[in-house]
């Protein structure tokens, strides 16, 4: 940077002007410009053109330090990558069942319970699997209390629209002591997509 370039920076930056007045170099250069006037750098006549005097290097060091601190602050304030929620870990004792395997399950194990954790509105508008019991996931503790009253030794097929709510309920059911939990793969959307029967 040439001395005249530094003069331009100082005219547009009060912080650098303050650093100049506060720096010991101020006295070394022997200048006493008033705060309201632009600060000018004058290279000593004995210094080679194209290089900075040794004293000017000490003046630029605080400015560079301030620039580094500002850059670090801006980097700290920049939005970081969004934090994703932890993945749902389904216990290994909970298995999946495909829509086309449900009928066979009901024939072989006639005591199987079908648990629909969707809302009543979803059941009303889209239909449901025949003989399924409705335990709305969004009812929270009330749903868990009602599930706890069921026979935990019976097989249970659990489903929602696509599978997310069913997985969360299955985890809770496993903690409640249910022994045989089956998640409908793909949820009710997969059930209807494969042409299975829908009750309304």
Percentage of residues assigned to helices:
40-55%
One letter per element, helices H and strands E, the order comes to: HHHHEHEHEHEHEH
> Could you tell me the number of beta strands?
5
- Oligomerization state of this entry? single chain
SSE diagram, text form:
Layout: H1 3-11, H2 14-22, H3 25-29, H4 54-77, E1 95-97, H5 102-108, E2 113-116, H6 120-126, E3 133-134, H7 141-147, E4 156-159, H8 164-176, E5 181-184, H9 187-193
Parallel strand pairs: 1-5, 2-3, 2-4, 4-5
Brief write-up:
The chain has 200 residues and is α/β, with parallel strands linked by helices.
3D architecture notes:
With 200 residues, the protein is α/β, with parallel strands linked by helices. It folds into 2 domains: 3-77, no CATH class; 95-193, Oxidized Rhodanese, domain 1. The protein is built from 9 helices and 5 strands, in the order ααααβαβαβαβαβα. The longest helix has 24 residues, at 54-77. It starts with a helix and ends in a 7-residue tail after the last helix.
Core attributes:
9 helices; five-stranded parallel sheet; 200 residues; Oxidized Rhodanese, domain 1; alpha/beta
